[in-house]
Amino acid sequence: MHVPDGFLDVPTSVATGAVAFAGVGLALRSARRELDERTAPMAGLVATFVFATQMLNFPVGAGTSGHLLGGALAAILVGPWTGVLCVSVVLLVQALLFADGGITALGTNITLMGIVGVVVGWVVFRVLLALLPKRVVLVAPIAAVAAFVAVPVTAMAFVGLYAVGGTAPIPLDTLTTAMLGWHMLIGIGEALITGLLVGSVTAVRPDLVFGARPTLRARQLEIRTTEGAAT
Amino acid sequence: MGVLMALLLAGVASFYASSSPDGLEYVAEKTGFLDTADEHAGQDGPMADYSAKGVEDERLSGGIAGVVGSLVVLALAGGLAFAVRRRPAQDRDSGS
Predict the structure, then answer these.
(1) Of A89, A171, A200, B18, which is most buried by a Cβ count within 10 Å?
(2) Where are the domains of chain B?
(3) A118 vs chain B: nearest CA distance in angstroms?
(4) Residues A28, A197: Cα–Cα separation, whole Å
């Protein structure tokens, strides 16, 4: 979903640039709470995975493809603030090294995929986690649902930006229908990849999954209760 | 182990990825605003469009781009994470 230069006008690009700058700045300050000696290498690894997986476009029919956005995945594995940093680094490298996503559109792309995608994925994940029983096995399916929701919402955020600063007079209802339709399909791929990766890491090292921590705490409490009952 | 997997995905598996336009590109084409995209300033760069310039073999060219990109992302994101991480209280460096 990398926006090239020229889709959005200059004022809109400047505005999204400012949003991205503020968002990444805030993430740099706040990620400190999520990162320590143990989780810092994990952040590098997650960003690398998002980059690698974004190269794997999967077909979604009729000559269209989709690729992982990775916002929900990163947020759930390493925490939302670190997730913003991971996706932003990927977008920066893609724009500068691979001509993927415009240079003046970098702020737009960071705002959409690095901030909206991460925040929506994380909020949906936390809300579902709070509503459902705190079980470690539920972390991966909840992650998949969060990832699914994040994709069409990010697509709608693009439509919103296009409504404000699109450079061509495109009827908004047509754009909305097309973007929403395709990105619901891409969201399914996003959900599968995210569920699979979060599930794999949770199965081996649940302690390394930022989003799984509340369920681990719940599990530890359970063990203590039974121990207390036995003595 | 994780790094190795990422390198395999970006360096080898990416060759088999779909080359169709992605959702946004497809919609832009169909609704008629794809041509408003400007040419990328880095279009002539050595790794533009995920292919290493000067490497004839498509598989190798894309593979090199994937591996280089993965390592650059790993270095940048890993370095950034280490730079902003919380340091143990007894770490004397944290004060300077």
Answers:
(1) A89
(2) 2-88
(3) 16
(4) 25
Does residue B59 sit at the A interface (CB-CB below 8 Å)?
A: no
Tell whether A63 lies on the interface with B, counting CB pairs under 8 A. yes
Q: Does B13 touch chain A (CB under 8 A)?
A: yes
Residues of B in contact with A82 (CB under 8 A): 81
User: Is B85–A103 a contact, with Cβ atoms under 8 angstroms apart?
Assistant: no
Range of the domain at A24: 10-230
* Residue A1, in any domain of the structure: no
Task: Answer whether A40 touches B (CB < 8 Å).
Answer: yes
Residue A4 located in a structural domain: no
Beta strands in chain B, from DSSP E residues, in sequence order: none
End-to-end CA distance of chain B: 35
- Looking at the complex, report in whole angstroms how far the Cα of residue B13 sits from the nearest Cα belonging to chain A: 7
Q: How many residues does chain B have?
A: 96
Rounded Cα gap, residues A132 and A152, in angstroms: 23
Say if B90 is an interface residue toward chain A (CB within 8 Å). Answer: no
What residue in B sits closest to A95 (Cα-Cα)?
B42
CATH number of the CATH domain containing A106: 1.10.1760.20
Count of residues in chain A = 231
pTM of the predicted structure, to 2 decimals: 0.92
List chain A pLDDT tens, one digit each, 231 residues: 999 999 999 999 999 999 999 999 999 999 999 999 989 999 999 999 999 999 999 999 878 999 999 999 999 999 999 999 999 999 999 999 999 999 999 999 999 999 999 999 999 999 999 999 989 999 999 999 999 999 999 999 999 999 999 999 999 999 999 999 999 999 999 999 999 999 999 999 999 999 999 888 887 766 655 555 554
Ramachandran angles phi, psi of A60, nearest 5°: -120, 20
Q: What is the pLDDT along chain B (96 residues), one digit of tens a residue?
A: 788 889 999 999 999 999 899 999 999 999 999 999 999 988 888 999 999 988 988 899 999 999 999 999 999 999 999 999 988 765 555 444
